[in-house]
Predict the structure.
Amino acid sequence: MNKRIKINRLLNAESPMKRVLVKGWVRTRRDSKTFSFIEINDGSCLRNMQIVADASLPDYEEVGKISTGSAVSVSGALVESKGGGQKWEILADEITVIGTAPETYPLQKKRHTDEYLRTIAHLRPRTNKYGAVFRIRSELSWAVHKFFKEKGFHHIHTPILTGSDCEGAGSLFRVTALDLENPPKQDGKIDFSEDFFGTEANLTVSGQLSAEMFALSLGDVYTFGPAFRAENSNTRRHAAEFWMVEPEMAFCDIHGDMDLAEELIRCLVGHALRECAEDLELFAKFVDKSLMTTLEGIVQNEFVRLPYRDAVSILQKASQPFEYPVEFGTDLQTEHERYLTEKHFKKPLIVYDYPKSIKPFYMRVNDDGDTVGAMDALVPGIGEIIGGSAREERPDVLKHRMLELGLPEKDYWWYLESRIFGSAPHSGFGLGFERLMMLVTGVNNIRDVVPFPRTPKNIEF
Ligand code: 4AD
Ligand code: MG
């Protein structure tokens, strides 16, 4: 028997084929007296393959029982379709049911809400919309590696179990191998010296600190991996587990950092427009009517670069009220970010030189003493998609910052040594991969671009 061929290949065939084998899941079946039409999808693309089952088939009675959701195997000839709607169809000579699906199969032919589909996250990739989301996610993930490969960056696998808190935000998931029923104690407190690593450990919130060590060795590097944050913020753009792309470049300042951030976003959006056209069309039709205009605008136009101080003046003069007032020293909230990118500039922008007081210890202090070389890229519909900075490479300034923030030098001895042995200016950033997915698809909830989302009180699947 010949090998199964993916439906996307067959739909792009140039000539008929005598005998092909396809396998997939039944989307619909329509019967007439002399024929049954079965639409099957195998996940290789959005479109289905139409199977024509002639009443002369030996098991034709069984064909009439094939239900939506069943897994089937079909062999037959690939022929030009007589009906409209598709170029090719398969004239079946054998149809085998591999796995049946009873009437309780939840994805019958009607539109379901995103909320409902989240409750069946194990089945939702079998719908058109979620199939498309996860094909695009896969394509963009490959495009990230392609982008950095072509620029000569090295891919570093930074650790997931760590002992540090890069962002200093304290929203860590703790990791322990201790018996929680009966933990060892010292002076009434849990004694982590008895734990697996002999000290407290957590899941990483960012690969940055490790990546910095490799930038200061291999030059230009990036990591692309999961990050974990126990922020209890139930928003549509935060997840407890998300993926981050983190480049880190030696001998690079904040301006080079912003250049790379802009180039990366525009390149990834362009890649999606070229390589995921069919899937994107679905989102432009059913999810966000202005999607294509937004995406093409991102590819074609330069981003605005705006110092934080100027962002504050614009926000203070805004005609609309904000829930949180803004002045120098306040962090920008989503409402402010979205005002700047959606209403004021109507395109992506990069805000830079934020106040020192609201940013982590590793950001490079500017000459004014009040601001740091931080930058956030903001895009329409989402707000912050990238956060990054120049890193403080001067050991004395870094130590001073750590002291101010109460970070013990002994916990960061290796980080500090990188500033003593051949220190060099370097910069990097983190691109939230789910936020990129939201931008590219127009899907407005992070839960709908993650295969099995982890958010507060939600780890069922
Ligand atoms: O701005 P953040 O916190 O920056 C860092 O973690 C740096 N260490 C990155 C670096 O310089 N190497 O996070 C970077 C990006 C954000 O802009 C956002 O897109 C995304 O990561 N992000 C989240 N995405 C989903 N859910 C969350 N809880 C997120 N927190 C951050
Ligand atoms: Mg940030």
In short: The pocket of 4AD (ligand 1) is lined by residues 166-167, 206, 208, 229, 231, 238-239, 242, 244, 246, 384-388, 428-430, 432, 434-435 (CB under 6 Å). The radius of gyration is 27 Å. The chain has a mean pLDDT of 96. The longest strand covers residues 17-31.
